[in-house]
Amino acid sequence: MSAYRPLTASTLIDYLSSLAPMQTRLGGNSADWTAREVSDGNLNTVFIVSGPAGSVCCKQSLPYVRVDPAWAMPLERTLFEARWMQALSPAVGHQIPELYHLDEGLFLIVMENLSTHHVLRNALIAGVAPAGFAARIGEFVGHASYATSWRALAFEDVYALRDLFSRNLALTRITVDLVLTDPYRTDCPRNRWISPELDDLVESLQTDSVLHAAVERMQERFLSSSQALLHGDLHTGSVMISGDDVRVIDGEFALYGPIGFDLGMFLANLAMNAYAQPEHDDWMRDEIALLWSSFRRAYLERWEAGAQRGDMASLTRPASCAAERTRFFQQILHDCAGFAGLELIRRTIGFAQIADYEAGSNRENEIEARRRALLTGRTLIQKAFQIDTIEALLDQI
Amino acid sequence: MSAYRPLTASTLIDYLSSLAPMQTRLGGNSADWTAREVSDGNLNTVFIVSGPAGSVCCKQSLPYVRVDPAWAMPLERTLFEARWMQALSPAVGHQIPELYHLDEGLFLIVMENLSTHHVLRNALIAGVAPAGFAARIGEFVGHASYATSWRALAFEDVYALRDLFSRNLALTRITVDLVLTDPYRTDCPRNRWISPELDDLVESLQTDSVLHAAVERMQERFLSSSQALLHGDLHTGSVMISGDDVRVIDGEFALYGPIGFDLGMFLANLAMNAYAQPEHDDWMRDEIALLWSSFRRAYLERWEAGAQRGDMASLTRPASCAAERTRFFQQILHDCAGFAGLELIRRTIGFAQIADYEAGSNRENEIEARRRALLTGRTLIQKAFQIDTIEALLDQI
What pLDDT, in 10s, does the model give residues A340-359? Predict the structure, then answer.
C-alpha cells in the first residue's frame, strides 16, 4: 500500500514497474511501456498502459469530481468498485473485467484492458452495436442479483456484504440527489434544459405534487428495499462491447438495493437512444423485451438449480410456487418501471445528461426526443406499481 | 467497564455500590440493599435491587439461553438492548424504561424498575388489563418507526443505525429460525404440539408447498425490507402495564425491518388471548382495531408535523398525497397480516409457546384455541397481500 498521490502517465509506469506480476503482464522493460490517459466518465482518471506483452487499464480516484474539481469527493470509491468486482466475479465470470491489482493507499485499480471493446453508448449512437446485446445485461443482472440475495446466501453473509457497501455514502448521496431528488426541485442550479422550448414541461414536472409523492415512493424503495447487490449506475456508458462479448464496468456506485433499479436504469437508456434516434425504435424495443426475458430466465435458472441456497430456500423446493414466482417478478417490474421513469427525467434535465440526444444535428428532433423522455418518465413513475408485464411497460414507452 | 462474570445477588450489590449515581438512587448503605432475582424471559438473568431511597432493575446476559443452558448464545444481546433504548428514547420518551447505566464488559444494563407494573400477558390472562392499552402500543410503533426511518433522517444516519443493529446476528438468527422457518419443518425437534389431536393439522402445515412459498415471501420481507428500527419481539410479554402507563421492554431483538413485523406480532398475541379466553373476544377485537388506528394516527402526526425531515421529504409537503399515503399504510398492513400469521403458528407449535393457552383448565378448549390459531395463521400468511383494511384483517381473525 502506497501513500496517495494523483498519478501521471510517468509516475504510473514507475509504480507498475515495481510490481512483478505487472512486469510479466506488460513484458519487456518499463522503458518500453506507454501510458495513455483515456478518462471518459465524470469522476476518475483512467490510463491504458501498454507494453510489448500486453496492456492493463488503471483507474484512480481523485479527491474531487474529475469534470468539476470544485466538487470534493472522498477517494474511497475505487475501493468499492474493487469490492464489487470481488463480490460478483464468482457469479458473473467474464461479464466484468478481471481485477489484477488493488492499491488501497493510492486508491488505484489495475484491471483487464478491454482494448477491442467499445463503450455501448457510443456503439448505439453510431448504430454499430450488435443486436441482442441486452440479453447479456439481463443475464448479468439475473446472476448478480441472485448470487448476492437471501435466496443464495445465509442472512448473516448478506448483512455483512450489505454493511460493507452501505459505507459507500458519497456515491449513494450522488444517486439520492442527482437521480431521486434534484430534477424535481425548482431551485437546483445543477439542472439544465433546452429553453424556452421545454420550460413549460419542466415547470410542470417540478410543481406536480402528485408526481413528487410518487417520486418519494421510489426513494423509499431505493433506500429501504435491499434485495441484492446492485451495480448502481448501469447505463449504456457502463457497458463495453465487442461482438458478443459484453462487459459491465464502473461498479463504484455499488450498494444493496431493489433489483429493479439496475434494470430500470438500463432500460431507460435504451428508450432514450430510440427517442434520439427514432430509426432505432424497433431495435430498442426488442432489446428491452430481451433485457427483461433474459434477466428473468437467468435468475430463475439459478433459483431452480438451488445453487448456494440461503435462508429463503430452507423451506421450499426451488421456485416451487408459480403464484409467488409471478408476484416476485411483478414487484421487480414495478420497481423497474419507476426507476426507468426517474432515469429518463434525470438524464434529460439533470446534471449528468447523455450524448445520444446530440447524435442528430436537428434541434427540433432533439427537443422532441427530450420531450418524449420527460413525458414517458412522468407516466412510468406514476403508474409504476400498475405495470405488471413487460408488454405493458413497452406500451408506455 | 468490568471483566465479564455472571453476577449473583451479592456480587451485583457489590458492583452497584461502586457506582456513585447508584448510591444516590438506592440510598443509605449497600448493607441495606437487597437483590431479588426475577428472571422471567427465556434468555437473561434479571434482578431487582432495592434500597432505602429507591430501586433499579438489572439485566445481564448469560453466555447461553437461560432456559436451555446447552444452547450457547453470545453475550452482546444486552448491548443491543441498550442501544435500542438509546436510539428510541428521544422519540418515545417514557414508553420504554429509563436506562441508568450500561456496563459493556459485564453485559449489564441497569434501568428503571417498573415495580408497580405487571407483565401485560399475565394481566390479560387474569383479565385485569385496562381496556385501551393497545392504543399506547400503536403510538409506540408509530413514533419509533417514523423517527428511525428515511422520512425523519438523512439516509446516511439511517444506514449507520441499520448497520449497528445488523450485527445483532445471534438474535436475528433466532427469529429467522424460530419464527420464520422451524414450525414448517417436519424434522425440527424444537416443535411440539398436543398430540394426537393436532397431528393432522400440523402435518398439513408442514407439507403444504403453497403455504411454504408464502412463508418464504414473508422471509423475504423480513430480511430485505428495512423500513425502520423494530423492537423485533413485540409480544404481550414484552409490555409492562400499570393503569394507563404502558411500557415496552426487552428490545434485545432490535433490528431494521418492515414496520408490519412489530404490529403483526403484537396483534397475533391479542388474537391468541381471545382464542384461549373466548370471553375476551370482543375486547381483543377492539384492541386490535385500536392498535392499528393509533399506529396510523401517531405515524401520520409525526409525518405531517414534518419533524426531523430526511431525504424522503426533501421534495414533498408532509404526507401530501392521499393515494400514496393509502398505498404506504396498505403495504404495512399486508406485512402485518403475514407476520401475524407466522406468530400465530410459531407460538402454537414452535419452541417458545405462550401461557395464555393454559389459562383454562379444559383440554378441549385449549385444543380448539390452538386449532383456531393454526388455521387463522395459515389464512393470514396466504392472503396477507390481499388484506387492505383492518376490517378485512379482523374478518379473518
Answer: 999 999 999 999 999 999 98
Q: Residue A146 and residue A135: Cα distance in Å, rounded?
A: 16
Cα B120 from Cα A59, distance rounded (Å) = 60
Residues sharing a CB contact under 8 Å with residue B330, sequence separation 6 or more, in sequence order: B388
Q: Is A324 on the interface with B (CB under 8 A)?
A: yes
Q: How far is A98 from chain B (nearest CA, A)?
A: 30
Q: B134-168 burial string, b = 16+ CB within 10 Å, else e?
A: bbbbbbbbbbbbbbbbbbbbbbbebbebbbbbbbb
Cell numbers representing residue B2 in the block? 468490568
Is B209 in the A-facing interface, judged by CB distances under 8 Å? Answer: yes
CA distances to A106, A168, B157 from A76, in Å: 10, 8, 19
Whose CA is closest to A110, among A41, A46, A171, A51? A46
pLDDT of amino acid A319: 58
Q: What is the pLDDT of residue B336?
A: 98
Q: Hey, what domains does chain B have and what are their CATH numbers?
A: 9-112 (3.30.200.20), 118-396 (3.90.1200.10)
Q: Does B220 touch chain A (CB under 8 A)?
A: yes
pLDDT digits (tens, 9 = 90+) for B231-251: 999 999 999 999 889 999 999
Its ipTM equals: 0.92
Residue among B328, B310, B298, B342 at smallest CA distance from B141: B298
For A197, A357, A370, the CA distances from A194, given in Å and listed in that order, are 6, 11, 9
CA distance B311 to B150: 6
Helix (H, G, I), strand (E, B) or coil at A49: strand
Give the DSSP letter string of B151-206.
Answer: TTS-HHHHHHHHHHHTT-HHHHHHIIIIITTGGG-TT-TT----TTTTHHHHHHHH
- Is residue B374 within a helix (H) or strand (E), and if so which, with residue range? helix B363-383
Q: Nearest CA of chain B to the CA of A8: how many Å?
A: 34
Asked if pLDDT for residue A294 goes beyond 90, the answer is yes
Report the C-alpha gap between B71 and B63 in whole angstroms.
9
Q: What pTM does this model have?
A: 0.94
Maximum alpha-carbon separation in chain B: 64
- Which of A312, A342, A383, A388 is most worth mutating to test chain B (most B CB atoms within 10 A of its CB)? A312
Q: Does A217 touch chain B (CB under 8 A)?
A: yes
Q: Does the structure show a pLDDT above 80 at B31?
A: yes
- Angle (CA) A380-A384-A389 rounded to 5° is 100
- Asked if the model's pLDDT at residue A206 lies above 80, the reply is yes
Contact A103/A2 with Cβ under 8 angstroms? yes
Inter-residue contact B337 to B387 (CB < 8 Å): yes
Structure confidence at residue A375 (pLDDT): 98
Strand partners, A47: A37, A58
pLDDT in tens, A142-161: 999 999 999 999 999 999 99
pLDDT digits (tens, 9 = 90+) for A104-133: 999 999 999 998 999 999 999 999 999 999
Say which residue the cell 407460538 belongs to: B347
User: What average pLDDT does the segment B20-24 reach?
Assistant: 94
Nearest-CB residue to B155 (from A150, A167, A223): A223
